[in-house]
Each structure stands twice: as structure tokens, then as C-alpha cells.
## 1
Amino acid sequence: MLLLDTASLYFRAYFGVPEIKAEDGTPVNAVRGLLEFISRLVNDYSPTDLVCCWDNDWRPQWRVDLIPSYKAHRVVEELETVPDVEEVPDPLQVQVPIIREVLAAAGICVIGVDGYEADDVIGTLATGAGMPVDVVTGDRDLFQLVDDAAGVRILYPTRGVGDPDLVDEKWVIAKYGITAAQYADFATMRGDTSDGLPGVKGVGEKTAAKLLEQYGDLDGIVAAVADPTTSLTKAQRQKFIDAVPYLAVAPQVVAVARDLDLDRSRTALPSAPADPERLRELAATYNLTSPVARLEAALARV
């Protein structure tokens, strides 16, 4: 099964593919790039199932309630009854509905859940999938899902999607000095400015990894802070004491959901478009003839 962090990929396509427009002037580089990515992935990995996981809510209120700074720097407009408006380049924003239309006509499964991010959809689908799972994402937070025993790994693109890093347990250990099961605690302590997560002030990646090696997990570290007989320095103890309010809520924000109520019945990758006539219309309207043809050829190989 291939699980795509769709927004991560269409952002990558938008910034990586030169500007291309439809006849009416609509930019379509992100649409074209995403379709090319999907075709390449299908050809390279021959999945039986593929899901474009969607951010129905890119900044869930329940996460914001726990940490108000969560993704706050990316908010253009705060709204009360629907998800906040994210800062997205206008030429990309107009392409998102086109992406949804093309995926629907192609018959490629799209799953999103109100009140949750694509990461949570991915976490749920990857857990108990009953088959090997490759998650395609540029988001390090999803390294927490890596599980050699369950056959879950991350395809972490470096350039395009043609030559990604294959992130498994060995890769995580070599890169960070921790196990994948420790990654969420590691990320909680390190923090992430791109997501508005402050982390534990003064605790970087090396210190976080060393503490996890010594005490196993964040709960073990917190217990060591409270135990005067442990080898923590006075400065280290103070850093975690100062971070108590953050540590009380951050693990819930960092951890991806794994138990959403999802319809798993539509994940099979089709061998032909669901609505070939509509797909041809969209291809003609939006200058997508070549990438759509390559997508159809890739599906035919399934």
C-alpha cells in the first residue's frame, strides 16, 4: 500500500515544476507534477492499494487548544466554524480543486477526516493495514510510524520522488541515534519551528537522543528529573522543570492518530480511470494530456 501525504507532494510539485498554464491562463504545474509523481510511484513500487491522504483540517482546533502556537505563523485568517485559512500561494490554491477533480475522475482513493490532518489519516491506515505500507511524505513527523515488523517505512523525497530515502528502523537509528518508536518523544523535546512547537528549551537533537538512550522514553526522562539520585545535571533538570506545562500537552499534539474511523474499502488502485470521459475533458481543459496519459499507462500495469 502506498499512502501519499498529498499536500506535501503538491507543494513540492508547485515549487519544483516550472510554471505551466492551461489555455485559459490557469496555472497547472502542481497538478501536472502531482500526477507525474503518482505515475512514477506506481511504476516504481507496483502497489495494490494507493490512498491520497488529505488535510480536511490542516490545523485542528484540538491541537491548537493544547498548544496555541501550533502552526500559528501559517494562518492567514482565523475562522470559528471551519478550518483556519492557511498561507498558500494563490497560484497553488486555485489548483487544489482541480487536483481533487482529476483524482476523482481517475478513480484514485482520497481520504480525509474532518478535524484531523493527513498525518492522522496516514497513521490510521498504516496501523493494522495487513500488508506492507510505504508512506510518501516530506514530513519528518511521520518517522514515528516506521515499523520493520509491520512492514511500514517512509519514502522521504529528496528530489522529486524518483530517488527517495527509504526510511526504516536502521535509517532512523543511523540518522538520529534513536529507534522509530522513540521518534515522537524525540520530536517533542526537540521541537519544530515550522509547526510552532517550541520544544524543551536548550534540548537539541543530540541531548534528546542521549536522554532517550539512557531513560527509554519521555516518561522515563520525566521520572529521572524528579529522582535526585539520577545522573541528570542540575541544568538539565531545570530545563525539564521549566518545560512542564509544554510536556503535559505536547506529546498529544506530536503523536499522529492511529484509530480514526475510516472507510478502508476503497483503497485498491484501479487498473483504469473511474470516469475516462471526465478525465479526458479535464486533461483537455487544463493542459494535462501528457501527464494523464502517463497516469493511465501506469494504472494499466496494475
## 2
Amino acid sequence: MLDTGRIIEDRGIRDRLGVFEDRTDAGRQLAAILSPLETIGDAVVCAIPAGGVPPGLEVARALKAPLRMAVVRKVQIPWNPEAGFGAVTWDGRVFLNRALMAGLDLSEAEVNAAVAKAKKNVEERIQKFAGGRQGPGLSGRTAILIDDGLATGYTMLAAVEAARAESPRQVVVAVPTGSLHAVNFIAEKADLVVCPNIRTSRIFAVAQAYERWHDITDQEVEELLIQARDMGLF
């Protein structure tokens, strides 16, 4: 394990693929790293749905910390919905990647439509997963933001900024896998980044860190949240 002060990684699995069975296994490995840290007391686990919910539940269980939905959606590029040029957060903030936008030659109408679609999706997911409620406050506490991986880091950047607006004591980002570029980028914004599987390859896909990978459905998220409620975590 390597702790640089702002980044904790497992050098034994750097650049390796298929190091986690699935997101739940990845969450348990994150929890094993986070649990001994004395600096993360009074934590709120903020899982980014959908992929961040399985690892988030495992971390919340291990830390006996409340679980909260940190709904963030990328602002999709019209002709490539898998990619985004910004993000919308649970508090309605909009973050746009101006440098990327400059190269996309998007019209104002296209930008506005994409932002409106992302905002609507955020509102729908907050209602669906959290019944419209925000969850436990972050003021004076440790916010642990969890997703299943960091590719560019831009969505997580938006989550960090939204969490900061609630005046937490510190913001910790915990992800099972991430590109070196994204981890370094987020480490400049968060107080600590925990990412056991950092990969330095120029081509990066979150899914490659997992032996079993599928897109998490809304139904799976709801079932996991029922488990969290049964454990008194949500």
C-alpha cells in the first residue's frame, strides 16, 4: 500500500486488470483500506448512482456510516451519449468543460438541451432513489464520495465541488480503479483519494478492473437501498 498523503493506492495491483470480482468485492477492498484510517471519523458515505451504490453500501456497512445518494449526471454529447462535456449535481449546479466544448462546436441550443436533460434526470433519480430527500447533512463531517471508477474524473470533480458547498470537515474520494491522470486531477481537489487500482495506460476503461461487469439497473439500486434501510444505514 502506498500513501502519498493525498493518494492511497495498492502498488501491488497497479496497471493490473480484473483485480475485483465485481463492484461488491471492490467495495469490500475499499472498506479494508478506509476502516483503519483515524482521520475519517464521523463519515457520511455518498454513493454516486448507479455504479457507486454497490461499493458504497459495503463501505457504509464497514464504517457503520450513513449512506446517501450523491446523484450526478454527465451532460451528454448529443451524438455520443456515452461521453459528456459536463455534469449536473444533486444541488442543481452545472459544471461544463469549456475546453472540451470549444472543440465540439456545439450550438447554444444543443448545450441548453443537453443541460436540461441532465437536470431532469438528476431530479428524477433523487425522487426515485431517495424519495426526494437529500439525506444526512455533510457540515462538519467527512464526506466519502464513492463511484465504481474514475475515467476522466470530471463527474467526480462536480461531486467534490457540490459536497464542498455543504461545508464538510473534509472530502475523501474512494474509487476501486482509476486512470492515473484522473486520480491526480481529483487529488488536487479532494483532501484524500483512495484508489487501490491505478492504471497508467493511455487507454482506460473502468470495466477492465472487474471480472464481472454490467450496467447497474435502477431496480438493483433500489434493492441495495432496501438492504441499507434494513441495516439502518439509509
## 3
Amino acid sequence: MIIETPKGAVRLRKPKVEDGSNVWDLIGRCKPLDENSMYFNLVQCDHFAETCILAEQDGELIGWISGHIPPEKPDTLFVWQVAVDGRARGMGLAHKMLDALIQRPVCDAVVRIETTITKENDASWALFRKFARESDAEISDEPHFERGAHFDGAHDTEHLVSIELEAEAERSAA
């Protein structure tokens, strides 16, 4: 899928296993995202391609969203990481990738988006609040992975953010 942005055309597509090292490089450039092993990003590109999306411009990877549908929550898309290269910021790219991802057939049963965000991550809060607002959806959050209880004090508390899309789907069907 090709989308137009203020900075030119961008291609959105499913990742392939060959994209894993480029995804790993992009995440490394997008501080303060948690970096994982390159192997992990290869597995995401291979096993979870249906629920991940990448953005390319002029043959270069400039955006990435990783996600999955948890087996115990088949109506939920869990978004794990959103990465946008510095030169691609201000294009609304993350929002466009998230919108394209939720429109995929694999997400037909999805009525909720979940993610975790630290309180200090203003960019992620802005993205998900805007997405909820523009989807006319409810958004809520609560502490989930806590600094003391889960991270041994080494990481800020991650808040579970939920966007309830069900109301929008019901209105669209009426």
C-alpha cells in the first residue's frame, strides 16, 4: 500500500524475515525504545508478519510497528513497539501505520487495542490518544508492569493502555 505524506510517498507493507536486521537497526536509532536481540526482530518479521507493519521511503526503512493477537484475547491487538525514524517524524506516519494495521483481515475480530506506555513517553501517549479520539473510541490506562514489583526498580512502570473499538464497530454496522 502506498500512502502520501507531507514528505512524499511511503510504502506500507508486511515485513519479511529479511527485514529483521533493518528493523533492529531502526529500533536502535529510536531511543528510548527498548532494544531486543536481532534474532527477536527476525522472529517478529517471520512469525508475526500479519500483525506487524513497516514503512519504507526510497527503499529505506523509516517506520515499524510490532504487534500480536494474544491467544487468550483473540479480540485484542497488542501493540508492542512503534518506531519512526527521526527524519520521518511529523508525517503522521505512526498513526497511518496503526490505521493500516488494524484494517488488515487478521484484525477483523479485533475490538480492542492494547499497549503499554511509561508515563514519560509523551510521543506514544499522543499517538494512542489521537488514534482513540479519531476512532471515536474509549481509552483507559492503569499501571500494569510496575517498577518495583516487575522490573526490580530498573525500569519505569508501564501502564496498560486500552482503546475500546467495539463501540465504533457497532455504530458502523448500524
## 4
Amino acid sequence: MTITTSEREALYKVIYSRRDVRGQFLPDPVPEAVLRRVLDAAHHAPSVGFMQPWDFVVVRDLVVREQIKEGFEIAHAEAANMFEGEKREQYRGFKLEGILEAPVGICVTCDRTRSGEVVIGRTANPEMDLYSSVCAVQNLWLAARAENLGVGWVSIIHHDRVREALGIPEHIVPVAWLCIGYVSFFHETPELEQAGWLPRLALDDLVHQEQW
């Protein structure tokens, strides 16, 4: 299957215009067909040993999302205390989630028991199943951007809070809580880059040839 020039350019456009959305969500519902396409793209991510360790918990219920929001607020306050001085105040001023604003939340999980104890490709590095679930997150994010949907990954929350709010079994690992919805606009560059929190590193400083 050959990728045409226009298809290649579209892929790169999606990659470079993908953003972590926090504060631009619209209340418009996400059509079921669109959501299905996005989830199907996530389900076609690569996985070690083809174990497909992911599950997707789709949440629209406001009460449940309020529980997730409470969990965020706890972890957010803890995180603020880890910074000092101006960094702490700057951190507190950031909008870092859209849990209640986005019409849909999706929790991507990892079932580390799927396919049994011995999985091709996970024998030397058992964490590869978690990395596989992160690949599903990335597929979902890029597919959502191609559908003009915004996605925000809320990582400032303890897994136990997510597990409790969603009734996730103890052996299942919550990997990502994603806020999903249409947005008023996409930022040209990442918000933390705009705020001067950190610059984008130069690619040439990160590429090593033959050895480190």
C-alpha cells in the first residue's frame, strides 16, 4: 500500500498541529460515528506480542467526571508544592485540564494479564505492555486531531482515584484520562512553550549517530 504525497503531507500536518487542549473545549456533542473512528484508530495501535492490552472507558456522565475532577484537584495541589518561588505561582496559574468542559472523557487502561504471563516481546522488558497502551493513546490523539477534535491528557491525578471513580478492577492499570471534544481553536504552538515554561529542544541536540 503506497502512501501518496498528499496523504503524507496530511499526516505530517496532523502530527505538527496536534495540541494538548485544556481550555478551548466546546459543549457540542461528539457524534458516535466520529468517536467510533477515533477508538478504532486507537485499537489499531502496535502492541507487543499483539496482546492488545488496552481497554477504553468512555465517560459522558457529569457526576463521574466531577469525581475525576476532584482527584485532579488533590494531585494538582500536591504538585504545586513541589515547585518553588515563581515557578510555583506560574504553575498554579496554568489551566491544566478540561475534565468538566469537554463533553467526553476516555480512560485508556492496560490489562497486564492479557495473553498470559509469557508474551512475545515482553520477556526481557515487562513494561512493554504499558508502552503499547501509550501507543494507543497516541493513535487516538492523532485520529482525533484529524477529526478536528481536541484532546487533553490529564496526567495530574492518582491512578487509585481514577480506578475508584470508574470501577476499574485492581489488576487493570489506568494509563491515561483524556478529555475529548470540539474546540474553539487550536494553539499554534504548545501552551507551555508559549508561557516560557520550557523551550522546544533542537532536534540536532537529541540525535546520536552510532553511539550516544
